[in-house]
Amino acid sequence: MKVEPGRRGEAGMVTAETAVTLTALVAVTLGMTWVVAVVGIQARCVDAARDTARAVARGESVDAGEEEGRRSAPEGARITVRRGGGVASVDVVADARPSWPVLSRLPAVTVGGHAVVALEPGVS
Question: What residue spans define the domains of the chain?
């Protein structure tokens, strides 16, 4: 192999640069996938809060309302219901943890949703 003057020591540079670039791309892709998963869990918390608040506002018991919310809530979510002042107020909080082995060392991210719905006439 003939080496041109001034180009010594650069053999394999493209391979090294490609390896670093691909590693960075994989890391960014994993990070963005995790962000999308966390946003999805947060959206499920909002849906669960809304479903629970609507059920309680219709006059269902708090337990029945929580059961309604658990159908759309992420696994392990904590649901808090308050009724008073003519409204039903619900908070749903969940810890989002990565389930992929590569990201298992990341700490949990706490996300949640909140909903307030006016009680229907005749419901106290």
Answer: 7-118
Q: What is the pTM of this model?
A: 0.80
Q: Write the CB contacts of 72 (distance below 8 Å, at least 6 apart in sequence).
A: 44, 47, 48, 51
Compute the distance between CA of residue 12 and CA of residue 3 in angstroms, rounded to an integer.
13
Sheet holding 78-84, edge to edge: 78-84, 87-96, 109-118
User: Cα(84)–Cα(113) distance, rounded to whole angstroms?
Assistant: 19
Query: Using one digit for the tens of pLDDT, what is the confidence trace for 74-87?
Result: 999 999 999 999 99
- Which single residue is written with the structure tokens 């708090």? 62
Rounded CA gap, 106 and 50, in Å?
A: 29
